[in-house]
Task: structure prediction
Amino acid sequence: MTPYMAYLLLLGLVTVFPPRCEWVAIAARGVGALWICWVLRRYFPAWGNPYWVIAVPAGVLAAGLWYGGQYLFDGLGLGGRLPLYPGTNVVEDPRDMLGAGNLFWTTVVLRISVAVTAVPIVEELFWRAFLLRAFINWQDFEHVPLGKFTWSSFLGTALLSTLQHPDNWAVSILCWLLFNGLFCWTRSILCLVVTHAVTNLVLYMHVIRVDDWAFW
Result:
């Protein structure tokens, strides 16, 4: 749990720095999370195989599901912020604060870099390697085989993911079911890390290409 919790704490740095120095907070949380993973690497379970032929198409599919699914749910009246969370999601174009020059692109490159490195590693260690097994046997999760299927863990973690994505809660459930199913099939943490990285890369590149900052 430590890498994931450390990353969440480091997210708070964005409130410390002014918007024009956001890149410092992004770099700090990326480097900090990866450093903690390196320090604790001997405690992690076996990473498994990347299964590139499976992981890359699955990541592209998840990105399309996330983007297209959100607009589908919005059209069905299931969009908006999770009721447990106050306020509304405010969409801002980062160029309004950073301009469209080097500062903007530095921030963009760093954010994408962290999204395809630190984020997939810490989240897959937490959600798939730990929590899926902890839902099965909290007291002795390390002896639960990676990728073991039970309905309670499969559906429970998908529903819990909405707390991490309150503004995309409905599509988050679908993507988590896809990720959970892929993990039960491959039983490989590394495969899910690659899938998650591809998902984030494709989604962010699409956001920039179509200038749709609601998913930034």
About this structure: The longest helix spans residues 52-75. The two ends are 25 Å apart (CA to CA).
